[in-house]
Design a protein that fits this description.
The protein is mostly helical and 290 residues long. The protein has eleven helices and no strands.
Length: 290
Amino acid sequence: MGLTKYLKTAFANRWNLLAFLGGIGFAFLSGQPDVVAPIVLAGEVAYLGFLGTHPRFQKYVDAQQAKASRVDGQDAASQAAKRMLLELPGHLEQRFEALRSRCDELQQLAQQIRDPGPGGEPPPLEDLQLAGLDRLLWMYLRLLYTQHSLSQFLEKTSAEQIERDIRQLEQRLKSFTDVANDPRLQRLQKVVQENLQTSQTRLANCKKAEENHELMSLEIDRLENTIHSLSEQAVNRQEPEFISGQIDQVANSMVQTEKTMGELAFVTGLKLANEEVPPMLRIPQVSAQR
């Protein structure tokens, strides 16, 4: 797209359109459109050539597009967060809301430490601090949703039954002897071998799901304890910068867990690796919608 993007943006500017259309209209009203119209067109080309190739204008256009993309990404992530909250069972939603309340208390505490404001009221929320808490809550919600999805998967999949099927297939496979000269037996043997491979893959997936379910449970407990600890430290340290730094440190420590959640997209349906973080502290509770 390159230069075309900047030229289109420059042309679509409302003041440029007003001037250009006004000039064309004047050209026809002047009685000499063959003289005035080319002058207007030449001026428009010069304007587009100057503005469309100006580095500062190009940076402005790129910044506006990036901002629009972030807004779209945040909207998509907000809708995904609301959907996940609606799909979580009641006890998990309550668990999330309890932690969100603690995050809100932590944020308010940091604000009051920094500047209680007139009458002891906290000042407006700081974007940087909100972003850190939103990120932690977004991770926490995805952990809960991933754990819930894995629980549903494991409820429908019995590792013991798959293991029994594997043993039966192995026994069946051993029963095939002298198949070299019997095409029918060869076909049957191949079907059993393929079925055995499929069952072994299913068992491996089931075992992996059990391991990941345990990992999600441990990470959920760790994140809850960490946020509670941050609240307690905030009271003792009285340093809002310390709170923000600790929030970022916790979020950065979960990179590997986020990667694991990305690998489990086939179970959860979550494909949000590149999405913006939704405003978790400001998303309304969904209990009333159940």
